[in-house]
Amino acid sequence: MIGAVIAMQSEADILLDQMNVHRCLTVSGKKICVGTAFGKEIAVCVCGVGKVNAALGAQLLVSKFDAEKLLNFGVAGGLNTGTELCGVYQIGAAVQFDFDLTQLNGTKIGTLDEYEENYLSLNLLNVDIPVKKLGTSDRFNDSPADYALLTKELGADIRDMEGAAIVQAAYATKLPVYSVKAISDVAGSGSTTEQFLINKDKALQNLKAVLPTVFEEL
């Protein structure tokens, strides 16, 4: 069983539209649909926005639906010229850039207490989709301070609000974890909120086009 952890219904719909859904139910307040697509058994959890929601959704798929691997996909923000608007990328490593024990432990920003490195590596698909680094936090903003932290200190290419938390949950359960993101907004190109609203649907359609290839490799 593949467990797909998706923040928003609009993101999940690009997979659900292509699934033969057997049942949908609500577990711990999260909508989960189980079915098949692309020859694979899949449980899709619409977890909600943010890291706690994402981690809870991932754990529900593991503990209640016996997921053997986890997949996160959806829209995200680009941080540099290497991320094209509405382009699709797979994530090779992710960090929680709002997690900071520097003052206590002297570790780099994003280093979880139980790990030595701030970036956690993901599994990679053998597909022709460029690999990027992801920064995750519980905030959606145009903050210059966050942008500097992400780009200059952490070297991230993409930012979102769920991905690295799902990776942390996958590490805890010792499961493979994959992530594919489509860029809805790019920093430095005007309001990210306005860009998101304008480009979200096109980005999701580009992401939908690669899902058959993604699931073929899972």
Give a verbal description of the structure.
With 218 residues, the chain is α/β, with parallel strands linked by helices. The protein has helices at residues 9-16, 51-65, 102-105, 144-153, 163-173, 192-217, and strands at residues 2-6, 20-27, 30-37, 40-46, 69-78, 88-96, 120-121, 131-136, 158-160, 177-186. Strands 5-9-8-6-10 form a 5-stranded mixed barrel. The longest helix is centred in the last third of the chain and has 26 residues, at 192-217. The radius of gyration is 16 Å and the shape is globular. The model has no long low-confidence stretch (mean pLDDT 95).
* Total of helices: 6
CATH topology: Rossmann fold
Largest sheet: 5 strands, mixed, barrel
Number of domains: 1
CATH architecture: 3-Layer(aba) Sandwich
The CATH class designation is Alpha Beta
Order of helical and strand elements: EHEEEHEEHEEHEHEH
The CATH superfamily is identified as Nucleoside phosphorylase domain
> Looking across the biggest beta sheet, what order are the strands in?
5-9-8-6-10
Mean pLDDT: 95
The number of strands is: 10
C-alpha-based Rg, rounded: 16 Å
Question: In what range is the share of β-strand residues?
Answer: 25-35%
Q: Tell me roughly what share of residues is in helical segments.
A: 25-40%
Sum up the overall morphology in one term. Answer: globular
